[in-house]
Known about the structure:
The chain crosses the membrane at residues 7-26. By secondary structure, the chain is mostly beta strands. It folds into three domains: 1-31, no CATH class; 36-123 and 415-482, Jelly Rolls (Sandwich), CATH 2.60.120; 184-392, no CATH class. It has helices spanning 3-28, 119-122, 146-151, 155-158, 470-482, and strands spanning 33-38, 56-59, 62-65, 70-75, 82-90, 96-102, 111-118, 127-131, 134-138, 161-164, 184-186, 190-191, 194-200, 204-212, 222-228, 233-239, 255-261, 267-274, 279-286, 292-299, 317-321, 326-329, 337-341, 344-348, 355-357, 364-368, 373-382, 407-410, 416-418, 421-429, 439-445, 455-465. The strands form five sheets. Strands 13, 15, 16, 18, 20, 21, 22, 23, 24, 25, 26 and 27 form a twelve-stranded antiparallel β-sheet that branches. Strands 1, 2, 3, 5, 29, 30 and 32 form a seven-stranded antiparallel β-sheet that branches. Strand 23 and strand 24 form a beta hairpin. It is globular.
Amino acid sequence: MSKTNRLVDSIFLLMAILVPIFFVAYDSGLINNLTAWRQPYQQSAIIGDLFPANRIEIVDTNWQITQEPVYFTARLPYPASIVSIGLNFDSRSCDTLKIGLKQNSSNDWSYQLQTVYNDSFAQLNWSQITQRGYTLWQKQSEFSSIESFLENQSEQLTNNIASYNMSLHHKFQINNYSDWSEQRRFDYVLRGDYSFYTYIKKGLDYRLEILDYNRANNEDNIVINIKNEFGELVDTIRVNDDGYSTTGVAPIPKRYINIHNDQLTEGVYQVEFLAGYDIFTTSIETKHRYLTFNKILYLANSTEYRDGNPIIPIKENKLITNSTTLEFSTSHPAGLQTVTVNNTSLTIKELQRKYSLKKLSGLSKLIIPKSDMMISGNGLFAFDWSMFFEPNINNLEIINNNSNFSYFIAAYIPPIIINNIASGSVNFSLDRAAIEQNKLRFIIACPGSSQENPLIIKSISLDYQDSGTWFDRIYRYLKYNYHE
């Protein structure tokens, strides 16, 4: 036998010995499962510190998050396929808590987010079934399993279903809807970006009045995206800068943008207005009945902008919202004021600082006496009761016991809560995860976290797992150890 043949035989013999050992180790959990855990004062070889440090305080044995988001990294010691992240936290300190895993993307802020806790869901007293990563709530207990519920999608049933983090592709419909008989004009002054939902019978029609303030030295181009209720882009309008892009130039006379599309059929549509802070929307005209804004508004009926020509009207703003968490901030002395939410007063007394309210329920009424205020929430806003509606039946983040729906299903596992301390976890596939120096990066987001209302986290846990065929595992092993 030649030396070459003996070498080949030796290699095959070595593989015959090592490969079974390799996979026995996987199957026994010596390789394919690894668990780590840490608290503020207990270091971990796997889980790194929370950062940035100026958003975090350590009180007793807890992390207190005074501004969100915060981040942490986790060492990836072997080529796992799934990571499970768990949080032990005070459920009274947040309305919505999400964890995200950074994805491999050219966008440095590309995170896959998953919900660990939603207080709105926790307050539902409907019957509840949790199976295979999904939870079904029913006003009246009718189905004994999620499988039987999904198999029985009659028309009567689908008209009474809302969902979260999963799309059943049910269309939202308002029976016997009609537009107003004539155009209506709303003189709300909004600065920069915003988005709103509306409902149409046939054809979308809005007229926006805008003003370019030229406070920043750049071009102020505008993009308007129109999406259907499933988030699919159906039209885009682009408006170029007015030609004056330097600072110190007086505001240019108002311009008008027509958002018009006769081809759109009945249903819900979202209009995204994307512009810089130099752009002010000074009025909105339409015949459509519903004008409900999504998550964030920059109110600008303020003395701060009296350098404008024509002068922006100065007036108090009143809104309604279904948000359970609200945040307020201002950048100018003219915006320092006391706002009212229902019967609660909140004084905004410092610039560039977020003030928050949590654990709101139902529809809340807001009064902003001086405007010049950035308002954000986890729900929807309207300037009048008659213009408010809740169209997000395929991704509903806020629901209450008096909802018009009879069934609510979510790709969500409620955490276990004992004496207000919650333990919840979410799973991430590592197929598209960004791995930098053999580390993963995570984000923790809890809107409304502040010095007065911090998010309280007691511990973080992590569990790496492997899955798939032997060939999948060998591929991940080679990719992990020999990637360039």
